């Protein structure tokens, strides 16, 4: 009985850790993509074409 409770708690902790790390990875991905996009179009914004 205690073993299944421990396994369940470990599984829940692993799921939460996976969800948090996935969220952080997605956030960092979005920041890097936005930064690359802005860098690509920076010259066009300065000259008024965009």
From TrEMBL:
Keywords: Membrane, Transmembrane, Transmembrane helix. The chain crosses the membrane at residues 6-29. This is Uncharacterized protein. It comes from Ethanoligenens harbinense (strain DSM 18485 / JCM 12961 / CGMCC 1.5033 / YUAN-3).
């Amino acid at each position: 009985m205690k073993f299944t409770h421990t396994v369940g708690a470990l599984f829940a902790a692993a799921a939460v850790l996976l969800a948090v790390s996935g969220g952080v990875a997605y956030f960092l991905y979005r920041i890097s993509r936005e930064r690359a996009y802005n860098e690509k179009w920076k010259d066009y914004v300065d000259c008024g074409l965009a």
